[in-house]
Amino acid sequence: MRLAALSDSGAAAVAHAVAVLEQTHGVIGSAALPVLAHPDLRPVVDAELDAVGRVVIEHHRPDGTVEGYTSGYADDIAERLAADGLGVLAPIDRAVVALVLLRCVAMPTAQGRAPRRWSAAPSVKLARLHDNRRLSKAALGDAINRLHDLHVLVNGRAIGISLGPAFDRLTPAQRHRIEEDLFVLAAPSDPVAVALQRRRQQAAGQP
Amino acid sequence: VSDVRLAAARARARGTVAADELGVLATLESGLWRVVDAGEERMLAVVEDLQLHNADLAGLPAGRLSLTQARTLLAVLVATATGATHPFPGGPATVADVLAVLGGPQLGEASKAHVKGALKKLHAWRLAAIGTGEVAEVGNAGPVRVGPAVAAWSGPWLAELTVLVAQAAGQPSRSQ
Lengths: 207, 176
Fold this sequence. Notes:
Chain A is mainly alpha-helical. Chain A is built from 8 helices and 5 strands, in the order H-E-H-E-E-H-H-H-H-E-E-H-H. In chain A, the strands form 2 sheets. In chain A, strands 1-3-2 form a 3-stranded antiparallel β-sheet. Chain A has a two-stranded antiparallel sheet with strand order 4-5.
């Protein structure tokens, strides 16, 4: 079913849900968007977002219930955009994001303290990022400001740098891909990392 | 991957709609999506703008301008006002014009720096366009225009804003 087939109130609820999903930055509490739990209206939201290559992403609590929602690019679309170079960060910005991911997600996870949501992971102090001597302080600061404006990072200044709401827009498959990237980055010669890279090369070689 | 899905996603990721995408994007649900003509470029936007349609933003992780950013944006609208019924595209102005609206010589150096910082943010969010091309210049003689995101503004509140801006700019409004 599409929007045109709904009652005025149903269409308004769907339009509002799409506007909220597309224009906010962060996870929207499930109570704010009851239309996404509605058995008849949720499929319409899904269909209207799919029409522009987007999907609803559900965020779950540890008990499995839905905590909230975001929207993001569908997996097939995200691959095409990346192949086109659209939305791809500059190399230095990617390096800074990788540093923050290592500090905020990979290291706590390796210590058994995996964050429930990447954007809710504890922040890292700017001084820790300066430990990486290959990035000048000026280049690092500029990149953080750019990434803050893109909602990729949050520059909490004295509080530290944390992952931004853009990460809430990743599907589980897209997050998994980044987790694999981090693993390869941290231990490139590990047999698992070697197998991951081989599998990707084979997949890239397929028509 | 359908042409429409991919064209819409490309337009969103790029921030602009290419000429050859207009045809397929015209098939999108008009109650949800619209292509906004912003002068030299076009953008794919959600019809319902949460910031502008009196939506209740309480409890939502929506972006909000700081007080300095909001005042600076209003000053840009005043400095570029032409008396037209829509603030986009507006007329040309300079950073000095924007500073003059906000107090001119009475502004301290720190306040001027805050305004110039706000102009850079508004430029990044495409609400204002400062400098030429991709370079955001904030020198006093640097050019300032209304940003392409303003082209998406619509709704009954726009007439009130136009009157307010025209009064502040001392110009008669065509909507009056």
